[in-house]
Structures are given as C-alpha cells and as structure tokens.
Write a structure and sequence with these properties.
Chain B: The chain crosses the membrane at residues 31-52, 72-93, 113-133. The structure holds two protein chains of two kinds. Chain A is mainly α. Helix content of chain A is 71%, strand content 0%. In chain A, helix 3 runs antiparallel to helix 4 (112-139). Chain B is built from five helices and no strands. Classes of the chains: A mainly alpha, B mainly alpha.
C-alpha cells in the first residue's frame, strides 16, 4: 500500500544560510576528490611503470585542461579539509543547544561557514602563488 | 483494533521489529567516517607539501622522494584512508540519490570494489617503487 501520509515540508520553507552551501559543496568536492584519488593512483602507477608513463602523466597535467583540473582539485581538497575540520569540531557538540543559545543574536554556527570558505580560497591562492614562484625560480 | 497508531492487523510491534537488526551498530559508518577523516587531516596537509616539493616533477627526483621509506609508508597509509573515506562518502551519496533498487545495489557493490582496487593499485605501485630502491644518480 503506498504511503499516503503527508511529507514534511522540505527545502522551500527554510531561510537560506551558508550552512546549506557548505553542505552542498562538501558533497560535490567529496565526489570530485574521489576522482582525484584516481588521479593519485594514476600518478603512482605511472611512476612505478617507468619514465615514459610518468612523462605522459606529467604531460597531461601540464596542459591547460590538466592545470584547470589540478586547480579545482586543490581548492576541493582544501575546502573539504577546512569544512571537514569544522564538521569534526561541531561533532563534539560544543556550544550547541539551549544553554548556549542566545535568542537575541543569530548563533555563531550560522555564519562560521563563510570563514571556512574564505580560508579555503585564500590557502588555494597561496598554494598556487607559491607553486608559480617555485616554477619560475626553477626556470631561471 | 490497533494497539498503536499506524498498526495494521494484530501483529505485535516487536514481531515486526525483530530481525531488522539491533540498535548497536547504527553508528559504525559514522565513526569510521570520522576516524578516517581525522587520519586524513594531517595526511592530506603532508601530501600537499610533498606534491609542492616534487614540482616540477623530474622523474628520478620523484622516484627518489616517494621511494624514501617514511614517504612510502605515509603514501600507503594515505591511499588506504583516502579510498576508505571516499567509499564511505560515495555510499551515502548513492543511498541518498539513487532510488532504483538494482542500480543502487550495483553502484554500492561497484564502488566498494573500485575503492579496494584503487587502494591496492596505490599500495602495489608504492611497494614496487620502494623495493626497487633509488637508482644511482
């Protein structure tokens, strides 16, 4: 017999908060990083296989499409890492619940996601600036 | 009549609940996901530094670096945690979004074999590089 009981209202009734963006991004970056795990596997197999296979691996990631993938992967990793650390901190249950809830202000966990996103973007930019400096220093 | 809301027939609720599993292992997935996540925090930061150090990816230098025992061990542990954590995450994604039963089951089995295969491939590659030793330069 089909379940005819009413469903609870879903996404439509909630006011948008950064937590929703974090949650979606955590899944998307996680999914993308699973593909990244295959990239790591390809790299290790290529390194074990020999110089020709390694050159092909490096060649692909020196191309524009390869570099773009690497850039997205680096941010995905850093966002998933930063957001994951926030997940672990929140898993402790610290600062949640009625005793610490101040009704006159929005709770801090409604907005700390912006900090997580900002840090992940800033570190990604830092990583690539350092890489470019390193490449130019190596070439000179 | 019914003893509880939603009951159909005379079957006792306990009879319906029996055989559906105990309530003792429900957090197993959650804990494994957290445990692998905790391991991956330092491992992935270390990995970023390793990759940065390897640029511009000169082959003998790459072999020498990842063939060092400490790096090799950490890379093997990283591969294990990475694919394990990835499989746990993919499992939830499939559970949430794939509602065609045969497809869900196929994906659930495929992603586990895929993760195992990926982790094994990394470990085998690392062992090959590690045991081959650093070529004399």
């Amino acid at each position: 017999m089909p379940n005819t009981r009413p469903l609870s209202p879903h996404l439509g009734i909630y006011r948008w908060r950064v937590n929703m963006l974090q949650s979606t991004l955590h899944r998307l970056t996680g999914l993308f990083l699973c593909l990244g795990a295959l990239l790591v596997t390809w790299g290790l197999i290529a390194a074990a296989d020999g110089e020709a296979a390694w050159s092909m691996f490096v060649g692909f990631f020196s191309s524009w499409i390869g570099l773009m993938l690497l850039f997205i992967w680096s941010w995905s990793l850093l966002f998933h890492l930063c957001n994951g650390i926030q997940h672990l901190v929140r898993d402790t249950g610290h600062n949640f619940g009625p005793p610490t809830r101040d009704r006159t202000h929005d709770p801090v966990y409604w907005s700390t996601g912006w900090f997580v996103i900002a840090v992940s973007v800033a570190v990604t930019v830092l990583v690539w600036v350092l890489l470019i400096v390193r490449m130019q220093g190596g070439a000179a | 009549m019914s003893a509880y809301p939603g009951q159909r027939g005379l079957r006792n609720p306990l009879k319906i609940a029996r055989g559906l599993g105990s309530s003792k292992t429900g957090v197993h997935h959650w804990w494994l996901q957290r445990a692998t996540a905790v391991a991956l925090v330092p491992l992935s930061i270390w990995f970023l530094f390793l990759v940065g150090d390897l640029v511009p990816a000169d082959y003998p230098m790459v072999l020498a670096t990842i063939g060092q025992p400490v790096n090799a061990v950490f890379l093997i542990v990283l591969a294990g945690c990475l694919f394990w954590h990835g499989a746990l995450g993919l499992q939830v994604i499939v559970e949430d979004y794939v509602h065609i039963r045969w497809l869900e089951l196929t994906l659930q089995i495929a992603l586990r074999f895929g993760a195992l295969l990926g982790a094994l491939a990394c470990v085998m590659a690392m062992l090959a590089i590690w045991l081959a030793g650093t070529p004399p330069s």
